[in-house]
Amino acid sequence: MPINSRTLTAAIASGCALLANPAAAQDDPSDGAKRTRVALGPQVKPSWPGANDVSFGPLVDFATAYGDTPFEFEAPDESFGFAVATSDDFAVGPVLSFETKRDSADVGGVLPDVDFSLEVGGFVNYTVSENFRLRAEARQGVTGHEGFIAVLGADLITRDADKYLVSIGPRLKITDNSYQDAYYSVTPAQSLASGLPAYDASGGVQSVGVVIGYIQQLSERWGIYTYAEYDRLVDDAANSPVVTTYGSRDQYSGGIALTYTFDGGIF
Question: How far apart are CA 16 and CA 11, in angstroms?
Fold first, then answer.
């Protein structure tokens, strides 16, 4: 089943982070005792980019903080990553994400599979103010679609330390020719076999959308974590016969999880 990108990559990337910065594995006494918040629950996501149906999978997340410092804000749709360079306003680091396989059966049984896609890249965060953040991610698929993806976003954040946090913000997703060809193009040979019109999707803006996140602490230890995301395919992706025949321009994701906060860390 497809899962949140953090689910599969958290252990790998966290291990890499610890190898790159062994000090991260140790509590920093000057910042107070370490706290860890773990979230676990179900979520739904499109079965493939442009799908008309959704698939169920686990939603897993974790965050750490020290002393009375609130947990750092992370948008629900972020790829897993960690900062390697920070300033008062900027944070830069690597990210790791993936796209689950699209089976030929999902698109009529004639168009080819798109294999599991591992994506690696980087992010830049710019904190405009305590309640407003900008983020850009750039990722390259090294398997599967082997395309390039850029995601631009902004988040308006309202919170009371760790008691509650609400975030909302727009998203813009840009993909290159390789990505669009993998999911949305139909070659002349595939057209003859499938009955779909030939179609050559070009790179550009793939979708626009919005993401809403909500975290509520119910007690000292327990809380809830939930999110909802809507994306609208546009331009070549929206007009693809693959989408108009087997998929939908409207893409929905969402999940809800129970959180538990404990003293100490996982690593």
Answer: 9
- Nearest CA-CA partner of 231 in 210, 247, 246: 210
Indicate the Cα dihedral angle 88, 90, 91, 96, nearest 10°.
160
In single-letter form, the type of residue at position 144 comes to G
Task: Say how many C-beta atoms besides its own lie within 10 A of residue 69's C-beta.
Answer: 12
- CA-to-CA separations, 70 to 64, 77, 132, 196, in angstroms, rounded: 9, 20, 16, 53
pLDDT at residue number 4: 45
pTM: 0.85
Report the alpha-carbon distance of residue 74 to residue 76 in Å, rounded. Answer: 6
pLDDT for 106: 95
Give the Cα separation of 4 and 40 in Å (integer). Answer: 11
Classified as helix, coil or strand, 119 is strand
Please provide the CATH number assigned to the domain covering 5-263. 2.40.160.40
- Taking alpha carbons only, the member of 95, 114, 118 closest to residue 50 is 114
Average pLDDT on 135-140 reads 98
Q: Each residue of 14-50: pLDDT tens digit?
A: 444 433 443 343 444 445 899 999 999 999 999 999 9
Instruction: With CA atoms as reference, report the closest residue to 15 among 4, 25, 26, 5.
Output: 25
Residue type, 111: L
| Residue 86 C-alpha from the chain's centroid | 21
Place of tokens 């790159």: 20
| Phi, psi angle pair for 9, to nearest 5° | -95, -15
Nearest to 17 by CA among 123, 121, 93, 88: 93
* Domain chopping of the chain, boundaries: 5-263
Determine whether 263 is exposed, middle or buried from the number of CB atoms within 10 Å of its CB (0-12, 13-18, 19+): exposed
